[in-house]
Please model this.
Amino acid sequence: MIRIFNSDTDPIREIISRDMNKISGKIERIVSDIIENVRANGDSALKEYSLKFDKTELDSFEVTDEEITEAFAAVDDKFIDILKEARENIYEFHKRQIRDNFVINDANGVILGQKIIPIEKVGLYVPGGTAPLPSTVLMTAVPAMAAGVSEIFMTTPPNREGRVNPVILAAAKIAGVGRIFKVGGAQAIAALAYGTQSIPVVDKIVGPGNAFVAEAKKQVFGKVGIDMIAGPSDICVVADNTNDPAVIATDMLSQAEHDKLATAVLVTTDEEFANDVAANIEKQLAVLPREEIARTSIDNNGMIIVTDTLEKAIEIANLIAPEHLELCVDNPFDYLNDVKNAGSIFLGKNCPEPLGDYFAGPNHTLPTNGTSRFSSPLSVDDFVKKSQFTYFTENALAAVADKVAYFARKEQLEAHARSAEIRSNNNE
Model:
């Protein structure tokens, strides 16, 4: 049963103090061993893990063009059309994130600038787990395409027949993924980071995964870039009593059904409404196909907080810093500037979070576990890097060389000082 608190009891402390990303020492050791095995033995290690974890014996890892064509044909036309429309929505949103180069051309002989450079090779990790996730394919591949990444690779675990779910392959074809490999888990992250006989080394790895995938990304960071260490999904719904309790209950369960560790929180201004939502959650759980997962999430992590005002409710939401924040209120734009910490914000009573998961356009790869306090959704920025450049004429350098040298000597770095001075001295 979901728990109901008055905000005066400070239930938020329980949420914000929970470390959902904490990795056990056992997982760290297992992942470290997997990475070292893949580094040392390449494809043979991957075959070993495919047999052990995926229960399939593979002769080769790369998905063939024939498999992609067959998969595309196996997916119904309606879903193909939806994938294509979702892809366009995602692209239209993300192309507006593309940054321009800039140049500052000083009249005194100084030129400064910044250039935006797409990352050359990116690896996308798409989980297998208990359900296929074509949405993850779109949300990782389309921003990479918008950014101008030249080579996009994808890894995803196969089933026991050694095949990838057709909807995953259809989404990859629509999104423009270059090459796809039937590898999952920590071993896939290791393969992308260090390369094998079949799988090329990439520059950055993005995409969600289980605790083993998250730990592997953590361990290979530095050899390659990563997007984030994602934890279980979470949602915070801010709603008043003008909402339908059944609707709010459904929104909370939409995240609870993801994972037993997922967190669903409602902050409301009405205790009777809170009780009605709780009753509807129980009613809906009884007929939910993923009841066991959702019930565990609700029982362990679900929470309803009752407070006095919407302003106070948003203050509480900012403390929680949710991955997803629904503002189910009239005139939601009146409150938008008050939101300081949230991965993705869903405004009004007609904007359920699954719109963001699949179709609207903003990214669904979001900071979890309160990390929206300091991090952002996956975006085009994750697939580019920036270089800066500096140019000084001889006269421009001469005008500032003594200042640079003076600064350097304050740091006791004499060679730095001489490097700034020597060109001017040689020209005297």
The mean pLDDT is 93. The first strand starts at residue 3 and ends at 6. Residues 25-226 form a domain with the Rossmann fold fold (CATH 3.40.50.1980). The chain is about 45% helix and 15% strand.
